[in-house]
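### Sample
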Amino acid sequence: MSLMITDECINCDVCEPECPNGAISPGEEIYVIDPSLCTECVGHFDEPQCQQVCPVDCIPHDPQHAESQDQLYAKYQLIVSSVG
């Protein structure tokens, strides 16, 4: 599944630059994650980097966007192929 940012976000700005897919951006009140770009860092890292750096632990899995590891990897390949 992709990840989401909850309203516990303190807008500390540390997650956005850590996302290798550019899925994190400032929203109206808190940062948001674009589920079409979030691969949970599959293809880049072993663990989601945004979760690793978040000081308030406000980046859980998004139950509305459930995806398997294979689906996340396929999304990663699509993103990488469209960039290059």
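The two ends are 25 Å apart (CA to CA). This sample (Ferredoxin) is used throughout the tutorial notebook.
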